[in-house]
Each structure stands twice: as C-alpha cells, then as structure tokens.
Amino acid sequence: MMENNLTAFGVAVIALFGVLISTYLTNKAADKRRLADQQAADKRRQEDQKAEGERRRADQDAAEKRRQEDIAAAEARRQQDRDDRERERREQLDRELRISQRAAVAECIKTINSAARQIDKLVLEKAPSGNFNVEILEALKGAEILIYHQKAQDALILLDLEVYDAEIRVALEALWDALINESTALEKAKNQGGAEWLKEINNLTFPSADIQKKIRSLQVIAQLVLVEHPNNKIAAEPAQDDETAKKPIENHISSSRSSSCVTHASESVPHAPSSTTQST
Asked: Each residue of 216-254: pLDDT tens digit?
C-alpha cells in the first residue's frame, strides 16, 4: 500500500514536472514568436515610416520644383514685359528722333531756299532810289549773296545740333564745304575790289549748281534715311553718345571756318557751332 502511494506520488511529481517543462517550453516558444512578430512589426513600421518620409520628401521636392518653375516663369514673363516696354520705348524714341530730324532738315532747307529767293528783292530795295546802275546792282547783289552764305551757314549750324544720323551729317558737311568754298571765293574777289569783284558776281549763277545739288542730296538722303521702317536702328544698336557723334562734324566746321577769309564783321563767317548757338 505504501509502495503504491509512493509510486503514485512519484508519477504525479513526474507529471507535474512534465507539465511545468511543457508550459515553460510553450511559453518560451510563444515569447519567441511574439518577439519575432514584434521585430517584424517594428521593421514594417520603420519601412513604412521610411517610405512615408521618402514620399513626403519627394512631394516636397516636387512642390519646390514646381514653385521654382513658377517663379522662373513669372520672372521670365516680367522680363519679357520689361523687354517689350524697353523695345516700345526705343521704337517711340526712334520715331520721335526721325520726326525731329526730318523737321530740322526741312526747316534748314526752307531757310536756305527762302534766303536765296529774297536776294533780288533785297537788292532792289537797297538800290538808290531811281538809280539802277548795273555796277551798283551787281555790288549790292554780291553783298547780299555773302549775307545769304552766312544765313545758310547759320541754318546748317542749327541743323548740326539736331541731326544724329551719320549719312545726313555727311550730306550736311558736303553742303557746308560748298558754301564755304563759294563764300571764300567771293570774299577774295571783294577784297580785290573793282573789276575783279564785279567779274566774280557776273560769272556766278546763283544759287550755284553745286549748292543746289548739295541741297537736293541732303533732302533725298534725309527722306531715305528718316523714312519709317520696321527695323529699329536704336533698338538694334546702342545709341552713340551725343558729344561723340557730333565731334567729327563740329571739328570739320571749325576747321572750315578757320580757313575762310573774313573782312567785315556783319558779313563774316560765323564762329564755331557752340558759340553761335549760345549767342543765338
């Protein structure tokens, strides 16, 4: 009986240890699975967070790229608007310059031609009453022609201040030279006096063919150069400094003046453009 009880107790103890060991192993396996599941879940969560971060960064980069593109496009539009306004300003300036230069050329030619037409009238007005001696009339005509040359040179000086185009300035210079050459020859003959002076006047067809040709050339070149055209010179090329642009012709006029012969102050060739303009 005692032995049976010991045996049963031993079996029970062994069974209990078996249960405990089985429970321990089961719990350990469960803990291992839970740990593995937790690590897997953490890994998936980290991967999801990493993917989400990458998506957010990609979205931010895309948004920043779009913002930069929008900024660049807006700046390009603003720059285009500025370029358009600058082009329109230059085109308007070019039109205004062409208009003012055409008006200046027209006024200059009108002044020169008007002075030429007045010569015969002035000669008759200044002739002694009832005395139409040929020599007196010729002498008066010579004096009026000299005055005409001075008026024409004054008109060219004023035109020189208004025109900027190089081709027009070349034509202006040619007309200036023609006037200087004729007035110099007349002054020389006048200084000699007498028959030489009258001979020079008699041989002079006035206005001379050379002066008429130079006036016509100035008119034609102004019409061709200053006509309205789509290709804007100022917009395509930087504007030349006014002082630099005028210097060659002013130097030419100054040198021409210094070489001309002057006898009377009232009939002399005017001074350099700057001083004449100030006095005017």
From this structure: 999 898 888 877 543 434 333 333 444 444 444 445 545
* Residues in CB range of 236: below 8 A, 6 or more apart: none
- Pair 210, 178: CB distance under 8 Å: yes
pLDDT tens readout for residues 169-199: 899 999 999 999 888 888 887 887 777 777 7
Task: Give residue 194's region: left, alpha or beta (phi > 0; psi -120 to 50).
Answer: left
